[in-house]
Amino acid sequence: MELETVQIDLDTETPTVVLHEEDARELGIHPMDRVQLRYDDGTAIGVVKVTTGLVAVGQIGVTHPLTHLQGSVGVQPAPQPQSLRYIRRKLQDIELDRSEIRTIVQDLYHDRLTDVELSAYIAGVYANGMSLGETIHMTESMADVGDRIEWGEPVVADKHSIGGVPGNRTTPIVVAIVAAAGVKIPKTSSRGITSPAGTADTMEVFCDVELDADEIRRVVGETNGCLVWGGAIELSPVDDRIIRVETPLSLDPEGQVIASVLSKKRSAGSTHVVIDIPYGESAKVTSHTEARKLARDFKRVGERLDMRIRCAITRGDGPIGVGIGPAHEAQDVLEVLQGDGPPDLRSKGVRLASILLSECDVDADAEEILGSGRALETFRSIVAAQDGDPDVSVDDIRVGEHTRTLTAGRDGVVAHVDNSVVSELARRAGAPKDMAAGLQMHTGVGKEITSGDPVVTVYADSEPKLEDAIALSERAEVIRILHPDETLIEQL
Amino acid sequence: MELETVQIDLDTETPTVVLHEEDARELGIHPMDRVQLRYDDGTAIGVVKVTTGLVAVGQIGVTHPLTHLQGSVGVQPAPQPQSLRYIRRKLQDIELDRSEIRTIVQDLYHDRLTDVELSAYIAGVYANGMSLGETIHMTESMADVGDRIEWGEPVVADKHSIGGVPGNRTTPIVVAIVAAAGVKIPKTSSRGITSPAGTADTMEVFCDVELDADEIRRVVGETNGCLVWGGAIELSPVDDRIIRVETPLSLDPEGQVIASVLSKKRSAGSTHVVIDIPYGESAKVTSHTEARKLARDFKRVGERLDMRIRCAITRGDGPIGVGIGPAHEAQDVLEVLQGDGPPDLRSKGVRLASILLSECDVDADAEEILGSGRALETFRSIVAAQDGDPDVSVDDIRVGEHTRTLTAGRDGVVAHVDNSVVSELARRAGAPKDMAAGLQMHTGVGKEITSGDPVVTVYADSEPKLEDAIALSERAEVIRILHPDETLIEQL
């Protein structure tokens, strides 16, 4: 059937085409079926949605990944991709081999799988787990598509955190120390998707973070390090696709997490990596056992891929540092580099840098590099190389003007700080989109507190957003205060 | 955030809203997140797609299930539905209890789950199976939503086929015999989705099939039976939703199949059901073992729901009857009822009717009811009650004018007829949309054949469709002919 294309500006996750109900019936296809599209320059696959009005009979609506199609196209039913058989196999708990995993990754890369199918894959991996072999094949296959950076050096350091802990902004500190010690550390980071800030959001307070591969090479050439947003380069495009479906499902299968992290590191040319695994009641990893298993599996997969991996299992029972949100975290980071700042953030940054340097067989004292101001100097040179102001001071960093401080309602000891409530509070205040929005924490787990003491100050750019955050704090428990001898948490 | 609604005519499976990228960022939500919509008459949940052009900043596009929204609506991020936790639990192979299953069904009924989430549920059930308890709870929960028909009688008969076998049009024969025996049998059927005809398509050759619940009651009151399309009444709306995602995934978890069939029967008020389970190399059920397990599980779930179920495991190694496609199957059915017609279709119809009558404790001879013409008389009265011509003859049924007969390429015995190739051939010829399109089979499994003998005649309403079907027959094997002593099928 020949149909006339109509452009539809809709950001669909899979290449979607819109057919009129009558044409769909004529072709014998129904919603979510695939059609093959023949046009002058070649063929493409589209997934069908049906309308009775958005396009007319004889027309075909094309959405984002297909908007290059113009004029008349030939349309016919297309078969299901090969991957679907392998996804069913995974659901039957049959271990997939290298070529089957490669086919799934290729089909994802070429947009041949719908989100519904990808969801079934993620569900299969979550239900039946991934063997070590499967994780290795997945990591390699994912690293093999998209961009790749080669450094031509035996040691390229990197760092990753499993996440889930607000304010945990150690990355700029680790990069500054390691780069100052003479080791290349080209760090790409994410923006906050469900958190109030990613490292990329925090660094954007200081400088440009959207650099392409050539610019990254230049910055690392000048300073040994960089602190950029990974999304500007396509290091593991399939990973981005998988995460987009995992996030709404809240499924994070362990093998897929390992493949996700290590495929990106491999594409970035990293050889030595330290991985921060915080665990706690409201963190992503909730038990020590789980944290140790994840660490062991990271190391095993790394070994098979000739990457040296060290894992640090860390406290995730509450936020790290004082500030939460891009500007507030930027202040914490700058203060630590200047020799001051929140002690927990400082010690964590130094410890992670130490572990990474020792894994790289570099004889350097992280504490000394930070204490001497060399880390600060390197950090300022990275900021300069990324078009920021190298002379920035803490006072230059603007924070939200609309503020409110929440106070403790009773005396006692802080037994728990809820990471997800803290994150949501900062997000409602506007973070990470509003850089100046966020929180300053005034207490932490284990600290004594008296009724009326400040718990957290909320900063926002506007009064409605501040109100929205405050409204949440009235419903959800940011911190739990117990009397020192109290053991009962809740009576149901 | 207040946004102005814009109507978008797009048949989305979940209630989808389209936001401009800037508004989405402002709200801190990304594609596939949920938003709560506040309007004059209440609230609704929408799943977000993002655009930079289909709607402007300040607008919100609303699609089919939400097109009643008009003017200004309040939009804010909405939490994930409770079901998502239970879906994850199922993926962890934890058995779900009654209330958890009920919540999933309710969330599906109220359109609170996206297709991606439903896909994860189906994958979980496929990977980890469903216990007997889960299947029972699922069946009950599915039957409890949507329409329900009460008959106020102790015996209401019904019939179902697992499907996958073209031409298997026993239903009108069974209904005619059972209704003639004085037993109520209000039969709802499907249209062909991936097959060349459903019973509803075949019956539409004779009469109207889109009846509402009141009309069904009238027809059954007059004739004891009816033969209508189930889609016109909402007997198990959640089942329709699940099937729409199962179909493109080609996943058909056993427990879900049982819940799907029995929830519809329960909503239709049926008490005694015969289930036809054909098995064969190219049918839906491929082995005798699998067929027996399915039969046993159907009976067990039925017992717990106070329904009396009998299963007939039948031959599915090739089409039943001669005609395939609505008109051709209608001819077969009418011929059988007139005392002639394809012997396999006749004997299968009589056997299924016998089993059902005996399960209903009705002492009646199905063979006699058919042979005496009483079944034909009842069938004609049903056709009349559904606004058809009761005096229809086989010659009145028009078949496609464009025909081509495929012939055997060698001598031998027909070792295999491929159900899926036969179905696809009829579909390409235009069935079920073109009622007159279809096939006449001239041979079957086990029959001797000589080179040049007719194998199948293809009927279409137009030459291009006929050509399209013929083109398929040149690539795919409709029948496999072996010499009687030959054992090798293929050499690879």
Q: Indicate the mean pLDDT of chain A.
A: 91
Radius of gyration of chain A: 25 Å
What portion of residues of chain A belong to β-strands?
A: 15-25%
The span between the termini of chain A is: 64 Å
The CATH superfamily of the largest domain in chain A is identified as Nucleoside phosphorylase/phosphoribosyltransferase catalytic domain
- Strand order across the largest sheet of chain A: 1-5-2-4-3-6
The largest contact between protein chains, plus residue counts on each side, is: A-B, 50 and 51 residues
Give a concise summary:
The structure is a homodimer of 492-residue chains. Chain A has helices spanning 21-27, 83-91, 98-109, 115-128, 132-143, 171-180, 199-203, 213-223, 237-249, 254-267, 288-304, 326-337, 343-359, 366-371, 374-385, 419-429, 463-475; strands spanning 2-7, 16-20, 34-39, 42-51, 59-62, 72-77, 157-161, 185-189, 225-229, 272-279, 308-315, 323-324, 402-407, 412-417, 438-441, 448-449, 454-460, 479-482. With 492 residues, chain A is an alpha/beta fold.
